[in-house]
Specification:
The protein has a single domain, classed as Gcn5-related N-acetyltransferase (GNAT) (Aminopeptidase, 3-Layer(aba) Sandwich). The protein has four helices and seven strands; from the N terminus they run βααβββαβαββ. Helix 1 packs across helix 2. The longest helix has 15 residues. The radius of gyration is 15 Å and the shape is globular.
């Protein structure tokens, strides 16, 4: 199965927003509980710096997953070497190595843009994602207690890091 990995453009906003809608409705995998609208996604993509990006996996002109890379803090330059990421795969395309291919592409982009370290927050009950990030070389660094509150239920998040 051949799919394309590339950096997203504002023209991808509607398709990315549709994946957000599905993932948010699952209420399980992401701390994001309200999907971004296509307009919000378009604005987000438009405001990314040259060192940041959303990277999409595309199959037959359909976006089936994406991964984000953001500067840790854009207002303090002593954190310029640190990025934060997130991975979002359409449920029909999970467990097909798409996340790994997105990560390989994003890691290369990150290295080429002077990132030295990446961090991720993962919902504690999302064992599949925790294992996924461990397989990519991320290490658990701590637990953020009651970090997520969705439908009035608290959940911890696992803080993970990877040095490039």
């Amino acid at each position: 199965m051949e799919f394309l990995i590339r950096k997203a453009s504002v023209e991808d906003a509607e398709k990315i927003a549709s994946i957000w809608s599905i993932i948010c409705s699952e209420r399980t995998y992401s701390a994001v509980n309200k999907p971004f609208t296509p307009e919000q996604e378009k604005e987000y993509i438009s405001n990314l710096s040259d060192r940041e990006g959303i990277f999409v996996a595309e199959y037959k002109s359909q976006i089936i997953g994406f991964q984000s890379l953001d500067i840790w803090m854009d207002y303090i330059d002593s954190f310029d070497h640190v990025g934060t990421i997130g991975t979002f795969i359409h449920p029909n395309w999970r467990k097909k190595q798409i996340g790994k291919k997105l990560a390989t592409f994003m890691f290369n982009f990150a290295r080429n843009n002077s990132y030295e370290k990446l961090v991720i927050y993962v919902r504690a009950r999302n064992k599949i994602a925790i294992d996924f990030y461990k397989d990519l070389g991320f290490v658990e660094k701590g637990v953020l207690t009651k970090q997520v509150k969705i439908d009035n239920v608290y959940e911890d998040e696992i803080f993970m890091e990877k040095f490039l």
